[in-house]
Every structure is written in C-alpha cells, then in structure tokens.
C-alpha cells in the first residue's frame, strides 16, 4: 500500500485537501507497537487488520484508538519474479496447469514472506498455508515450504519484501493482490477457500490457528481499516483525509490499485467518531 499512498494518494491529498501528507509504511502490528510506545503519533492510522487497532484500544492502552472503519478488502496471492529461474513453472501454476506448491517445493526455490509477529500479512500467510494443507490434501505442505512460523531464511521486513522480489533476491513471495497490481509483477491467484479474501468464508478461515505468547489466534478475512488516534495533532485534517479515502477520490484510487470495496462498517465506539464521518458508517462489525 505504501507505493500507492506515496505516489498517488499523498500528492493528490496535498493538492485537493490542502494538507501536508507525510506517510510511513511498515507492518501494521509493528506500527501499532510504535504508536503504543509513543515512538509515533500519526494523525491517521491505516492497518491491514482490525487486530492492530485493537492493540491500541481500551484503558490499558491509554485509549489511543476508540474506533475504526472498514476501508477495503484484499486477498493473498503468490507474486513472482518473471526473471526467476522458476518463471516458466510459476507461469504454468498461474494458468492452473501445475500446482503452485509443487513449484515452491523445488530444490533451490527462494521464497519470501513477512514476520507473523509484526505484520498481519505474515500472520495471514500462516493461516493460508494451514488452509492449503487441508484444501489440497497435502498434510506436509506447511512444513515443506515454510519450515516454521518464523523461518529466518524466508522472513523479511514488510517494507522491503517487494524489493527482495523485484531485485531477484527471491523467486516468489506472499503478497496482497493490490501490491502485485501496483508493482506490476505477475502473480498466482489462490482459491477463495485459502486466500482469506472472501467474507463468506469467514467461518472456514477461523479453523486455521496460530499461537502467540500462549494465545491462540484464528484466521479471518483480510480487512484494511482506518482510524484517527486520540493523540492526533490535527484531527480536522485527519477527518478530511479519512473521508477522502473512504468515500472520495482516494477510495477510487485504492479500488483501481487492486483492493475490493466493502461496506464502511464500524469497530469500536460510534460516539467517538468525528461528527463529519458519522454519515459514512454502514453498520457495525461483528
């Protein structure tokens, strides 16, 4: 999302809304941790999962976030380098003539993903491979390709993962569809049953689990959210920017970038949503 924000949405927001846009991209969980520790005080926080917003909610988290809105939906894909030694096999997998996981199991195949403890995409990757094991009836698929949740040979910072792919350091990565679209790299579309991109498969996704610090977490549809932290120094401009992304031209840019539109449902306390944004709310999240 960093590329579309920096190259398209940011400059247009500057000219249309007369605000000074300055963004920073990283894993949503890592960003939430920085906000929580006071290292960052953004006016607007966009997350790749409601779980990052929830890290900042409640008295124990100084009520840094009281509400969040659904911004857009996405899905996981396997993005690959067209110059990879495995490009022909990956292209065949994209056409459905060979299983994608068989290509990734080939000796010498280099695979990249993000840290499941710092980035929702990395966490979703864990769920996706668990679901794939069952879907393809391949009980060893997770171990053969990922090795472990935090395999150091595969895990890269979220902000550098795509550059690892485009510079040829890895053959393929797990990416959001919008990332593959905005970077112009080929990708393999995954079935709805495993790509975490269909809200109708919510119950099935929840069967995939990951344990973190003794807590069992469950898979869920990928949902990007947006909020204004209570520490915002310019809440008026922040509200204008949120409206621009949720219902204005910024929203149209996101859809062209590969995202999928969703109803603007609310998480958290409606009373804390700025009055100018109340009309955007289209129900509440479960």
UniProtKB/TrEMBL annotation:
<protein>
    <submittedName>
        <fullName>Molybdenum ABC transporter substrate-binding protein</fullName>
    </submittedName>
</protein>
<dbReference type="InterPro" id="IPR050682">
    <property type="entry name" value="ModA/WtpA"/>
</dbReference>
<comment type="similarity">
    <text>Belongs to the bacterial solute-binding protein 1 family. WtpA subfamily.</text>
</comment>
<dbReference type="GO" id="GO:0030973">
    <property type="term" value="F:molybdate ion binding"/>
</dbReference>
<dbReference type="Pfam" id="PF13531">
    <property type="entry name" value="SBP_bac_11"/>
</dbReference>
<dbReference type="GO" id="GO:0015689">
    <property type="term" value="P:molybdate ion transport"/>
</dbReference>
């Amino acid at each position: 999302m960093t590329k579309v924000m920096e190259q398209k949405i940011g400059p247009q927001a500057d000219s249309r809304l007369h605000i000074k846009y300055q963004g920073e991209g990283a894993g949503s969980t890592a960003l939430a941790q920085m906000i929580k520790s006071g290292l960052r005080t953004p006016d607007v926080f966009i997350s790749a999962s409601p779980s990052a917003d929830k890290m900042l909610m409640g008295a124990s988290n100084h009520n840094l976030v009281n509400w969040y809105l659904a911004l857009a939906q996405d899905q996981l894909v396997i993005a690959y380098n067209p110059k990879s030694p495995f490009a022909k096999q990956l292209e065949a997998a994209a056409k459905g003539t060979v299983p994608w996981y068989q290509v990734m199991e080939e000796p010498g195949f280099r695979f990249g993903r993000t840290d499941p403890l710092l980035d929702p995409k990395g966490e979703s990757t864990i769920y996706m491979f668990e679901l794939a094991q069952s879907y393809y009836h391949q009980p060893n698929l997770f171990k053969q390709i990922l090795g472990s949740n935090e395999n150091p040979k595969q895990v890269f910072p979220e902000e550098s993962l795509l550059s690892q792919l485009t510079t040829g350091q890895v053959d393929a990565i797990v990416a959001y569809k919008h990332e593959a679209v905005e970077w112009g790299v080929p990708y393999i579309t995954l079935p709805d049953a495993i790509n975490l991109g269909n809200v109708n498969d919510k119950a099935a996704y929840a069967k995939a689990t990951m344990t973190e610090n003794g807590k069992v977490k469950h898979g869920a549809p990928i949902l990007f959210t947006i909020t204004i932290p209570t520490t915002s120094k310019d809440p008026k401009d922040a509200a204008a920017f949120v409206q621009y992304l949720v219902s204005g031209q910024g929203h149209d840019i996101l859809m062209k970038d590969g995202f999928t539109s969703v109803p603007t449902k609310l998480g958290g306390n409606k009373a804390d949503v700025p009055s100018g944004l109340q009309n955007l709310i289209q129900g509440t999240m479960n």
